[in-house]
Amino acid sequence: MRWVDLIPKRWRTASITDRVRVLRWLLPLAIASAVFVYQLGFTAAIHARMGSVAHTVVELLFYSVVGPVATWLILDQISQWLTAKEAAEQAVRVQERHLASIAAASADAILSLDPDATIRSWNRGATMLFGYRQSEMVGKPFRELLPPPARFSAAQPDGTEHVAAPLRYEGHADARDGRRIVVDVTETPLLDNQDKLVATSVVMRDITPRKAREALLEAERARIARDLHDGLAQNLYFVGLKLDFVRKLLVRDVDAAEQELSALTQTIQRTIRDVRRTIFALRPVDFKAGGLESAVRTYIRDFGEQANLEVVFETKGDLRRIPPALEPEFFHLVQEGLNNIAKHAEARHASICLEVRSGPVGYLAVEDDGIGLEGNGALPQRPGKLGLRQMQERVTQLRGSLALHGEPGKGTRLEVQIPL
Questions:
Q1: Whether residues 151 and 52 fall in one domain
Q2: In the Cβ-directed half-sphere of 240, how many Cα atoms lie within 13 Å?
Q3: Could you give the C-alpha distances from 398 to 82, 209, 325, 329, in angstroms and in order?
């Protein structure tokens, strides 16, 4: 057993302040007791046996040696305690600076909140994400940045106890330029030794592009489901009815049955083309290989072959200024525009112009030489044109504009403008 193990654990784990407080009361009592025993016991025996001279020598040795040595040992022990404390504090300060540098340089927004949910720190990532400077946000309520229905571990309105575990949720925050940002939020309560909330750490990550991709995927699924329902399912149902009609017609009129079979063959061929277009639309698009322009050129070449449609593609401006998050949006608009032409326009030729204008603004024009529209610049209300209304909803979400121009028999021109 080591001698350190003889020291009570409570004393070993006590703080320096508690140790000094105990020594402040214990040392005077110990010294007084030692002097009392020494004077009445040891020195009295020396004086009785060896006389006053020996008594004086022993007194000098005791008070000039034992006292200073005891004082030195006590101060040395306190010095070791203080040195260990300073080393621990220095290590904590180094770690705090390391964590602070990580938080300051992080691309994620990292905030700290007071117990009343007031912002007290704001890193560079938060400035990059929201556009607000630290001096503008420190001291403001967190709810002004992330409004309800977001949940807060730092401020429970009903007065209940604070949440001790980290809380993760998604919320919507408004940036300085008016953009609505979807953020993934992680709140971590920071508690003291008494489990009392002293602060809350908040980490927010921008998931707006991911949500946009999810919405794009969901819209594409809805479009494909709509195409299958409105096209393939109805055509197959029609084919079934026609086959039953032809079966009955064969008994009494073979020539009429042959005509019906010829028309039915054309219907099946159209259905096959529609199915091929749907399968073609499911092919993944790689924007990283050659960018948006290359992806569009590849798509319209293959689509033209599938739909027997001659498509001319033209670009203007620097398409590299289109943000990566908007490239799938422009591609989907081209895709939807060509699908509408193939389904409804009865066109032989189409042209697409993709341009980056000053602003910067992305401009897209899709034009055909088909049967045209009933009205100029208004979205048609027929069920068959549902895709156009969904295109307009998507463009509106991107703070853009969509317009249709066309006259009966003179084709249609679709124009889209989206701020970059």
A1: no
A2: 6
A3: 62, 12, 11, 9
Task: Kindly state the average pLDDT of the residues 71-89.
Answer: 78
The token pair that represents 206 in the structure block: 């921008």
Query: How many distinct structural domains can be found in the chain?
Result: 3
- Final residue in a domain of this structure, among 206, 232, 262: 206
Per-residue pLDDT, 379? 46
* Residue 184 phi, psi (nearest 5): -95, 120
pTM of the model: 0.47
Single out the residue of 289, 312, 314 nearest to residue 300, CA to CA.
312
Same domain, 322 and 339: yes
Transcribe 22-41 into DSSP letters: HHHHHHHHHHHHHHHHIIII
**pLDDT reading at 155 higher than 60:** no
Q: Hey, what are 155's tokens?
A: 């401020």
Which residues form the domain of 66?
3-104
Say whether both 154 and 94 belong to one domain: no
Over residues 318-361, the pLDDT tens digits come to 888 888 778 888 888 888 888 888 878 888 889 999 989 888 89
Which of 84, 104, 124 is at the close of a domain?
104
d(CA 357, CA 414): 17
Contact 157, 181 (CB under 8 A): no
